[in-house]
Structure formats: C-alpha cells, structure tokens
Amino acid sequence: MIxxxxxxxxxxxxxxxANVGIIGxxxxxxxxxxxxxxxxxxxxxFDIDQARVDALNRGVCHTGDVDDxxxxxxLATRLEVTNNFxxxxxxxxxxxxxxxxxxxxxxxxxxxxMSAAEQIACCLRRGQFILLESTTxxxxxxxxxxxxFERRGLHVGSxxxxxxxxxxxxxxxxxxxxxxxxxxxxxxxxxxxxLATALYSTIVEKVVPVSSPxxxxxxxxxxxxxxxxxxxxxxxxxxxxxxxxVDIWEVIxxxxxxxxxxxxxxxxxxxxGHCIPIDPLYLSWKLRSLxxxxxxxxxxCEINQEMPEFVVDLVARALNEHGKCLNxxxxxxxxxxxxxxxxxxxxxxxxxxMRLLLQRRARLAYVDQYIPSLxxxxxxxxxxxxxxxxxxxxxxxxxxxxxxxxxYAQVAQEARLVVDTRNATGSLPQAPHVWRMSRPCARGxxxxxxx
Length: 451
Ligand SMILES: NC(=O)c1ccc[n+]([C@@H]2O[C@H](COP(=O)([O-])OP(=O)(O)OC[C@H]3O[C@@H](n4cnc5c(N)ncnc54)[C@H](O)[C@@H]3O)[C@@H](O)[C@H]2O)c1
Description:
This protein has helices spanning 4-14, 29-38, 50-57, 68-77, 111-123, 140-150, 190-201, 213-244, 248-255, 279-289, 295-321, 349-359, 388-393, 408-414, and strands at 19-23, 42-46, 79-82, 93-96, 129-132, 161-164, 183-187, 207-209, 330-334, 363-367, 373-376, 379-382, 396-399, 418-420, 434-435. By secondary structure, the protein is α/β, with parallel strands linked by helices. The chain has two domains: 4-211, Rossmann fold (3-Layer(aba) Sandwich), CATH 3.40.50.720; 224-435, Rossmann fold. The strands form three sheets. An eight-stranded mixed sheet has the order 3-2-1-4-5-6-7-8, sandwiched between helices. Strands 10-9-13-14-15 form a five-stranded parallel sheet. Strand 11 and strand 12 (379-382) form a beta hairpin. The relative contact order is 0.08. Bound molecules: nicotinamide-adenine-dinucleotide. Residues 23-29, 46-49, 52, 97-100, 112, 115-116, 134-135, 167, 169, 171, 274-275 line the site of nicotinamide-adenine-dinucleotide (NAD).
C-alpha cells in the first residue's frame, strides 16, 4: 500500500494541482517546464543565469524547440520564471535539469547538479518529490544526492521521494516530441518509481519504470554510448573507404537495405552537442574509478575526436588536386552548429575544423544563418550571406553542417571546389570538383585502378 503522504502527492499529481519546480531552463528544462504548464500544472522555473531569467520573463525564448507563442501563453497562465531559490519550498515536485559538462581534464563536472541539490536540501520539506534529469554517471542519485537529502533528517520513501529520469529529447527533431518519446524512470524506492511514473504519465504517452536510479542512469549512457560507438565506426569506415577509393555513402545506403541487423550511422566532422561527445566519458570515468577500462568507449571517442583533422587533411588534398595549397587558400565553411537546423554550437566539430584551418594558415569565412557571429582564436567572425558570388570567391567550400535552408545544387554549381562532410550533395550527380568525404572516383574504380 502506498503511504498516506505519497497517496496525497499522487492525487495532487493525477489531479494536476501539484506545483512543479524545474531547475535549469536550457534545452532540456525549458521545453519540460512548458510541457508541464500545458499539461495543466502550475510551474516555477528556476535558473541562476540572470540574463536568461530576464529574457524569458520578457517572453523571449532561447531554444528553437519551444514555440514563442506557446511559451508566452504558458507564461501568461501557469508558468513563472525566477532566480529566487527560496521559492523551491512552494514546489511539490522539483526536477533538476542543469548541465553536466566535462572539466579541463575531460572528467565529469557535476558541480551544477550538486549546487542545485544543495539549494533543494536547504529547504527540503516533507511531501516533496525530487527528480534528476541531467545525464550523469550511475550512482549520482543514490550515492550523492540521497545522502545529501538524508542529512536533513527526512526519510526517502516516506517523508520525501527521489528518482532519476533521463531526458531523451532530440533538439531540432520534429518527428519525435517530448510527448511521443517514452520516458524511463527509476526511483530510490518503489513509491518513488510509482510517483515518477504518475508524474510523467501526465505529459508523455509511455513511461518505462526500471528497478533503480542507477539502472535509469545507465540506460541513458547506454543509449548515448551506442550512438558514439556507432558514429565512431561510421567515421572509421569513412577513412577506410577513402583509402580504398570507395564512396562511403553508397556503401552505407546499400548496407541499410538489409531488413534486419543493421542500423545506418553516418560519418561527419565528428559528433557535437552536450551529449554524444560527453556522456560516454562520464561512464568511462566512473568505470575507471572501479578499475575497469571501457575500451569501446575510449576507442570510439578517439576516432571521433580525430575527425576534424581528417576533414582538414581532406581539404588540403582536394586543394592540392586543384594546384593549390591550404596555406593562404580561402575556405568558406557552410555551417557552424553541431547539427542541422539548430542554433547549438556546444562541442561543435565545425568549430574545431575551422580552428585547425586557421592554424594551417587558411583564410576563413563561414555561413550559418543560426549563428550571426562566432569567436575563433580571439577573432570575431560574422556570417556571410550565401550568394553565388560568395560561393565563387572561395577556393574551397566546406560543408560542415547540412542545414536544410541551403540550396546545395547551387553550392555544387557555383563553387570551384566542394568538400562535403555530410553528404548534403548526395542526391546530385557526381562531379569531379565535389569531394564527399573522399576524392571523387569514377564508378567501379578501386584503389588499384586509381591514378
Ligand atoms: N541538450 C540536449 O539535447 C540534451 C538531451 C538530453 C539530455 N541532456 C542533458 O540534460 C542536462 C541539461 O542540458 P541542457 O542542454 O538543457 O543544458 P543548458 O546549458 O542548455 O541549460 C542548463 C541551464 O541550467 C542553468 N543552471 C546551471 N546551473 C544551475 C543551478 N545550479 N541552478 C539553476 N540553474 C542552473 C543554466 O544557466 C542553463 O540555463 C545535461 O545533463 C544534458 O546532458 C541534454
């Protein structure tokens, strides 16, 4: 039987009269806050970034995944945004959505989680339910947050509840929304899991309970490590195909026709964003502390991190074929964000490629309508307009992000030389001046047959 205080909270959740607090209003926390407000809950959003709080209170949204009008409607009805953390005591449910980056030694930096948890611990009261959504290593909820809250003299499972639920949104993805992506939840006790299931059932179609917070934490790391390792394999195959003078995109597309046992992953300048380049390192760090070396993770990360070098080498070879050297050549980079149709440049490999090009003394400009300006090696660059003239001026046009608003047929037609790391030109006829992750070669031509 679920205990009386838990029953009360369960009813408040089911009747949507529970107050929901969200700590951290970024790519994860803001859409979540809006979804709970749309679901009928009163929501308090907390953030330490004063400028972000001010902008949100003016109705200005910073992520493309939340529609301005939907956000403004939530703000006018059930959503409040504040940096007054004393108000955490008003929330029945508190969800932590703060960043989990790497520190300078490429090790987990969970200081944001711990400082949010300290804020909660200061005003934790009976009847509150705390959930962690930030991606982190297994044990964070049960071994770090639980003792912090227990020091308040309250008992988990009876006085308050604690659970982990990994966020799985894919910014920019219009096909899978927060509502349609199933939610995994793992509570410290069975009551915690039951409350988490009830809570997320109000805003998502399917909730998947697992037996513990550590299992839920590991689910997220399996998902993202699976991506990192498979992207690493695709990146290694891109290099293999380049050596063999085979078209990597043709190979992947043909392999993907197998109706079972193969899921296509694609090469590129390297994975970016706040998840794939970072999360597997959270797991390998944890395992190192337990005297286990996660070899798949280390190798995949190594291959992925080398991709910007591979791309720069490709540009140098392509220029060489055209009788030019990289030093002094004018490179126009198309795309700065880590993936298409987002405005996120965190860990973007496009920036690594651009920095390497500058190191090799190329002259650089970029086009990205999502990023009006960016700083590279202390110099501020402003996006160019994509025109025929801009394309014709460049010695090489380098496609680093395949934003969907770009006319790639025009790029291939106007540019003197194209290096395409995303297969954005894949649907166009092959052309000798367009390198798609490798030197273009005639159909059927192999390494042995090549000049
Ligand atoms: N971005 C994604 O696609 C994605 C997807 C799934 C999971 N995640 C995970 O979700 C978590 C959050 O990621 P994000 O992309 O939303 O980060 P973000 O940087 O976009 O937003 C985090 C917000 O938290 C605020 N913040 C930091 N410390 C705080 C504190 N102590 N108290 C209150 N606010 C604080 C920041 O000011 C910022 O507004 C990370 O663990 C990430 O790995 C991200």
